[in-house]
Amino acid sequence: MDLQSQLSRRERQIMDIIYRRGRAFVWEVHQDIPNPPSYSAVRAMMRILEEKGYLRHEKAGNKYVYSSTQSRRDAGLSAAKGNAGQGSLPDHQLGQQAGFLEGDSG
Questions:
Q1: 15-35 confidence digits (pLDDT tens)
Q2: Which Gene3D superfamilies match (predicted)?
């Protein structure tokens, strides 16, 4: 069973954003989700994705930056149209976004 069928729509949106950015703070994910739920809900979903083993976090000062534990291909997650907002990095720039300037202490 692939990731696409194991996750909710919102969880897939979060994973799409993480894959596109390479890594992201909660506020960046919240900003990129279309019609986003509350900031706290996004933070909770990211924590759940981490508990499920799909995300990991690193401490960046007093903030956490999240990244995927596996590649999109290994996860079996295909990009879904309209899942990310404007301002996301193109796929060829994955991993170039440092993201350590500001963020969330999720």
A1: 999 999 999 999 999 999 999
A2: Winged helix-like DNA-binding domain superfamily/Winged helix DNA-binding domain
